Structures are given as structure tokens and as C-alpha cells.
Amino acid sequence: MKTLFFTFGCKVNQYDTQMLREAFAAGYIPGAVAGPELAVVNTCCVTARAENDCLKLARKLLRQGKKVWITGCLVKKEGEKLRQLLPGASLYERDFLLMFLPACVLERTGPLKGISYFAGHVRAFVKVQEGCENRCSYCIVPLVRGASRSRPEAEILREIETLADNGYREIVLTGTDLGSYGKDTGTSLAGLLQRIFRGRRGLRIRLSSLELIRVSPELLSILKESESFCPHFHIPLQSGSDRVLRLMARRYTAGQYLKAVAQIKKLFPEATITTDCLVGFPGEAESDFQLTCQVVEKVGFLKVHVFPYSVRPGTAAAFFPGKVPLKVIKERKSRLLALAEAVSAQEKKSFLGTQQDLLTEKINGAVASGHTGNYLPVRFTWQAGRVNEVVRVSLTGLTRGCFEGTIAFSGSAAAAHH
């Protein structure tokens, strides 16, 4: 019987879906789900919009006559409510589903310890840790993902080897709070990276997202030593106002953020920085918003993901006074996005004329496209184009935010040059 998978939310959720996909392929619950097509929906509850999108899809699938299983963060947060809203669906907590391999399969394969491919992606995500203990006042994630738990190093290294054996050229390390890897086991992300970098040559390693408080001199020094590291840092800013950062329970100031970025750019001249900003947080005045805009301009972000504040019941900020009107939130969001676009265009211009290694992700006729190590989007003509190749390109032009390039050289030569 055919099983469909739908994923909402973060890279960690996408990894969890891939685990489920492989568990099903291994003979997961054989014969137990006869009849209509099964749809597994891996949900997200980080914003009200994400929750509504999950519910909308589940209802649509049920109307189509599919058997619907719902798992993920929304089940943890709103299990009872979901049972009432979606009486035709089955609800499973994520850990329960992943432990649900039948004995006959476990005897043959042992417990599922990792993934071997990543459906629909040229680069593979590898979850190294799960859970978060930062307790930011607006965020529901610690309540649904729990305390920080790190996977064993040996298991991660084995999984990366398997993915590399299966042809993956780039691995994205991901986690709910990636930088806290090893805090519960006496190791560290820097130590894990050292072991990964000692492994297969030519494998590109990317980090998904790092909290500023986790960007240590030791980590930067390990990254600097490796030719495998893709020099792109995603470091959430959230706000450029120290007053708002305190209310958010973020553990840094705008000045500390700017100082860390300056250090990164000094160590990695080719590095790009992307970020997340939250607008309309309770008590955010126009002057606070202006401070965020100033930091965005000073850093020169390649991309800013702008999120309108969404009340999450169960979080501290849900009780904060000074709610910002929705109209003001929307207006600030569009102003910040416009500024971010102008800043990004300026940042991109500084890379014109450089040569960069990229991983090809799409081929459309004779036009190939992909992202460089520092996450610049590039299109270029390549008659013999193949997906999942490392190619060195010269960046010659810039149209609507995407670079045009020409091939300098391709294949193992590019990897070796990198």
C-alpha cells in the first residue's frame, strides 16, 4: 500500500520524516494498514499559521478518503484538541511511531539508527541533537521537543558515511539547538566536527542554524581549519533592541551580536550570514523596530527571514502586556523585508567577479543551478549538466537576486581545489 508523507516546519522535522519513510520501507507495521492510501502528516506548531496549515491539509486528506496519521510537535502540544477537530485521523507521538517497528523487522535489521538517503533533496540533513533548554519567552519549542538530547557520535559518523557512500556530496548538520550538541554527554559540536572533518575528503559540511551563545572561539577555529566547511552561518538575531532581547529572554545584546559577526567575517572573508527576525513582539515600540533595522544594515545579511509575532499559549510572552496591533506588525514585516532585500542585493554585489564552488541542484535543459558553499544562488549554462556535481563557477552577473555564472572547472578538480 502506498504511503504519502507530508512535512511542516524545520529541518529536524524533515529528518524525522525521512526516518519514518525508511522505517516504513523496512517493513514498518506490515499489513496493519490495509485499505485506503495512508498519509502521514508530520506537524509543526511554531506559529499559529503553521498549526492552521497542518489542520487544513489533514482535513483535505480525510475528505479525499485517505487514512491519515498525524505526528510531530502539534500532537504533543494539542493532542486532545486534535482528536476533537480531526475525529477521522489517528494521532501518534513521534517517539512512539519511531519505536513501533515490529519484532520481525527488528530481528532482521536491528533498531533503525539512521537514514540512508534524503528524499527530494540533493543535500542530506543529519539530525545530531534534539530539544532545547533556552526557554525564549515567545517560543513553544522547548515544551514540545523537550530537553536537549545528543545522538552518539559513532551513530552520526556512521550515518554520514552511509550517505556519502550513497552519493551525497553535501551534509547539513541540524538540531533544535545545534550548538548545544554534547552538553548532555560531555562532548561538543566542535569535537564532533573535528571527527567528521577527519573522515571522507571532498564531502561538504554545512551547519543549519547556530544560536549566538553557542558560537565559541573553539568552534570557529575548528571550522576555519577545515576545507570541507561551507562558510555560511545562520544566526538568529530576533531583535536589534537590547530591551526587547531581554523581554524575549535572549542571552545576548545587539552589540555582542555585531561583535561576533565581525569576528566571523574576519576569520572567514567569504562567509555570508543569514538570520531570523521577529517583529511585533509585545512591547516593541517603533524605536525598537528601528534598532533592528540598524543591525540588519550593519551586518549586511544575505537573507533575513522575517516572522510576525504569533502568541503561543503556554509561553511566558503570552501574558506580556503591550500587544502590538496586527496592522502595525504587518507593516513592520513588509518594511523589514524591503530593507533586507536591499541589504542582500548590496551584499551579493560584493561577490561579483569571484570564483566559487557550488553543488548543482537542478538542471533545466542546458541551464544548471545550485548554491555555493556560502549559499549564493547561481544559474549557469552547462551542456553536459548533471545534478549533485561540485562545480567551480565564476560569478559574472546578478539578475533578480540570482547570480549568473560560467564554469571554471567541474567534478573532482573543483572538490580538490575547494
Q: Tell me the count of domains.
A: 4
**pLDDT < 50 runs, ≥5 residues:** none
Order of helices and strands: EHEHEHEHHEHEHEHEHEHHEHEHEEEEEH
From the spread of the alpha carbons, the general shape counts as globular
- The total beta strand count reads 16
Give a verbal description of the structure.
- The protein has 418 residues and is an alpha/beta fold.
- The protein has four domains: 3-109, Rossmann fold; 115-230, Transcription Regulator spoIIAA (2-Layer Sandwich), CATH 3.30.750; 241-248 and 267-350, Transcription Regulator spoIIAA (2-Layer Sandwich); 355-417, Beta Barrel (OB fold (Dihydrolipoamide Acetyltransferase, E2P)).
- It is 37% helix and 23% strand.
- The chain contains 14 helices and 16 strands.
- The strands form four sheets. Strands 12-13-14-16-15 form a five-stranded mixed beta barrel. A four-stranded parallel beta sheet has the order 1-2-3-4, sandwiched between helices. It has a four-stranded mixed beta sheet with strand order 6-5-7-8.
- Helix 1 links the parallel strand 1 and strand 2.
- The longest helix is centred in the last third of the chain and has 24 residues, at 326-349.
- The termini are far apart.
Task: Give a quick set of tags describing it.
single chain, 418 residues, alpha/beta, Rossmann fold, Transcription Regulator spoIIAA, 4 domains, five-stranded mixed barrel, four-stranded parallel beta sheet, 16 strands
